[in-house]
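Course assignment 3, question 2. Fill in each field.
Student: A.L.
Task: Predict the tertiary structure for the chain below.
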Amino acid sequence: MRITRHAAALLLGFIAIQSAWSQAGSYPDRPIRMIAPSSAGGPTDVIARAVSSPLAEILGRQIVIDNRAGAAGLIGTDIVAKSTPDGYTLLFGFSGPLSIVPHIVKSVPYDPVKDFAHVSLVASAPYVLLANPALPVKSVRELIDLAKSQPGKLNFASGGNGTGVHMAGELLNLAAGIHIVHVPYKGAGPGMTALLAGEVNIMFNGLSAALPHIKSNRLRALAAGGDKRSTLLPDLPTVAESGLKFSIAGWYGISAPRGTPRPIVAKLRKDIVRALEAGETRERFSALAVEAIGSTPEEFAIMLKEEVAKWGAVVKASGIKAQ
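Answer field:
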């Protein structure tokens, strides 16, 4: 009886493997929905469309971008977590709903690590620390000195609680031992408008959104947020060059629901990397001030676990209360 059961188990396993490879062989045979958990026209949406176009050409099927904004990205991300794991519903995810917001919202309806088959990282977008020109500082050190002389008097804008630019400000507070007050807005766009109007003093934001205002001198760039200088602003030092332990950049990746057959994940990963290597994609990314960073599923998973741990520590140290 044991031999029979063992043989049956092997047969079922073989059938499952054959079925998975069969699915991968015909995949995709219909359009794919890629959910971007953000509003149309924002950085996540724009980058998603920049990579989905060449990916659709390689796959030979249409990729429909479905914008599902709300709850700091939780709504769209949860839709994918609960979707059928067949490769036809994908997530164009980013740091907020996958590594930050789960520490801030009490009842997150998914596990960012366990409930997804993370396929490949796609892009990294550097942050830049911006100041309204009326603020009398021209460097990170001058900002720190001013903040220490006026504790609680300066403020920084963000696109909402739990967003990457919010966490960048909190990380700066912790690294420098200062207290610059967080002022959340309903999106990075309104936050930038407030900074331009002088309603707030400083803000971290993506370089692509900030660059036109830096070039027109409507905003002053104090430092780049990543671990290296931006090729678009090579003379701008990083925050870390001021002596702080600081590095942050926005990142984006494509994920599928947990249980998606491995052959489908492998095919998607291979074709995503091909799409990222295309000259057209690199030109689009360069115009958006983002860097292509294709990865393996294993590399994506490791990075995400590190990000979850990092931002959990920052949230705890900052005293941010779960909502």
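Instructor remarks: The longest helix spans residues 2-26. The chain has two domains: 32-125+249-318, 126-242.
Grade: pending
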